[in-house]
Amino acid sequence: MIQLINGEQIPFGTMTADPTGNIVLNDSRRIALTPGYYQINYHVSAILRTAGYMQVTPSYSGAPHLEYGIYFRTSVDNTSANGSAGLILEIPAPTEFTLTYNSNSVSVEGAGTITVVKLRRTAG
């Protein structure tokens, strides 16, 4: 379980380290990426104590990207909220990838997974 706090980045851990150094978990919340193409998939879930919403926003290259985010709204107290997203990114310069959590409800029993894979793809 992870703690999901409104307005804060979601923490993650490393299951398999990237021996090439292209993908590095700088701390529990920021993933450093070198230039290239990446496939990123993530899933976040939590129980919302009161009716409300859960929003997860990825950020990279210095900006948030709502178009790749997750949004889930509940109308009942103590309801599970969850979502998944996947994207392929071209990273032109070194950057950090983060996921920011927002909710107007207290969230408990949070869980999250993220998979980042550098692709062997060239511009063209």
Q: Layout of SSEs?
A:
Layout: E1 8-9, E2 23-25, E3 31-33, E4 36-48, E5 53-60, E6 63-64, E7 70-73, E8 79-91, E9 95-103, E10 107-119
Antiparallel strand pairs: 1-9, 2-3, 3-9, 4-8, 4-10, 5-6, 5-7, 5-9
What does this structure look like?
- The protein is mainly β.
- 0% of the residues lie in helices and 56% in strands.
- The protein has no helices and ten strands.
- Strands 1, 2, 3, 5, 6, 7 and 9 form a seven-stranded antiparallel sheet that branches.
- β2 and β3 form a beta hairpin.
- It is elongated, with a radius of gyration of 15 Å.
- The chain starts with 7 loop residues before the first strand and ends in a 5-residue tail after the last strand.
Throw out a few tags for this protein.
124 residues; mainly beta; three-stranded antiparallel beta sheet; seven-stranded antiparallel beta sheet
**Low-pLDDT runs:** none
Largest sheet geometry = 7 strands, antiparallel
Estimate the mean pLDDT confidence.
95
Distance between the termini: 42 Å
Percent of residues in helices: under 10%
Summarize the structure.
The chain is mainly β and 124 residues long. It has strands at 8-9, 23-25, 31-33, 36-48, 53-60, 63-64, 70-73, 79-91, 95-103, 107-119. It is built from no helices and ten strands.
